[in-house]
Design a protein that fits this description.
9 helices, about 35% helix, about 250 residues, alpha+beta, 2 domains, globular
Length: about 250
């Protein structure tokens, strides 16, 4: 077993992740992660690079140092990160600040002016919170706050992952992502509410993407489908079935 294999298992356990959870963050199958940890396969370079980003390590650290022998130093750095006031604070982008965010998303001074909050389950990483408006992602109600972790590369996002997408033409939207391997420069954005049609955008149009980790909404808010919405959904399905029957005949 190589040092890299051993370090993968050590880092996963250090953060308290299951193999399924860790494999999801690395965008690989759980079985492949198991093969890495057991020394039956050598981790690919792109996987190791993701691990380095997650744990703020260098490739040299991961490939040459037995991190379990440097536990005190590593844990000390993580403890300092957790206790840091800035690392755990999550900038909040309300709906009224959405237009300004499109111009100032990369401006540190603008981000510093946003209100912040902390969550006990969030430490380290790069997080941001966005207020959403509209019914396109029901049953997640309008006014909910989506806490997302920064997506560093679009290829790392798995299909059907819910994300905040910040783009030049569509602004800030909360959607599920679908990628087509044949058209890598296009992203399909889907709503959880079936009355909203999916649409595609160019990956070059995306300014930022934040993978949804937590949803904060009011406890007294209860969303339900109204009769009109259900009637429209049934009518659409009937039209689709009728169209399919005509094609078959």
């Amino acid at each position: 077993m190589s040092i890299a294999n051993k370090n993968l298992k050590y880092l996963r356990k250090l953060r308290g992740l299951t193999q399924d959870e860790f494999a999801g963050k690395l965008n690989i199958k759980r079985s492949l992660l198991g093969a890495y940890e057991e020394g039956r396969a050598e981790p690919r370079l792109e996987v190791l690079e993701v691990v380095c980003d997650l744990f703020k390590l260098t490739l040299d650290d991961l490939l040459r140092k037995d991190l379990s022998e440097h536990t005190d130093n590593y844990l000390a750095r993580r403890r300092a990160l957790k206790m840091s006031d800035t690392s755990a604070r999550i900038p909040f982008v309300p709906v009224k600040a959405a237009a300004g965010y499109l111009n100032g998303y990369a401006d540190h001074e603008f981000i510093d002016e946003l209100n912040t909050f902390t969550l006990p389950m969030v430490s380290g990483g790069n997080y941001r919170a966005f207020e959403i408006a509209g019914d396109s992602m029901l049953p997640t109600p309008s006014g909910s706050i989506i806490v997302g972790e920064k997506v560093e590369a679009l290829d790392h996002v798995r299909n059907n992952t819910a994300c905040i997408v910040v783009s030049k033409n569509d602004g800030i939207v909360y959607k599920r992502i679908q990628r087509n391997g044949k058209t890598r420069n296009k992203l399909m954005l889907l709503s959880d509410n079936p009355t909203f049609q999916p649409y595609s955008i160019s990956s070059e149009d995306v300014l930022e993407m934040w993978e949804a980790q937590f949803i904060i909404s009011k406890t007294n808010t209860m969303q339900s489908w109204n009769v009109g919405q259900l009637v429209n959904i049934v009518a659409d399905l009937q039209q689709e079935v009728a169209g399919m029957k005509k094609k078959m005949n």
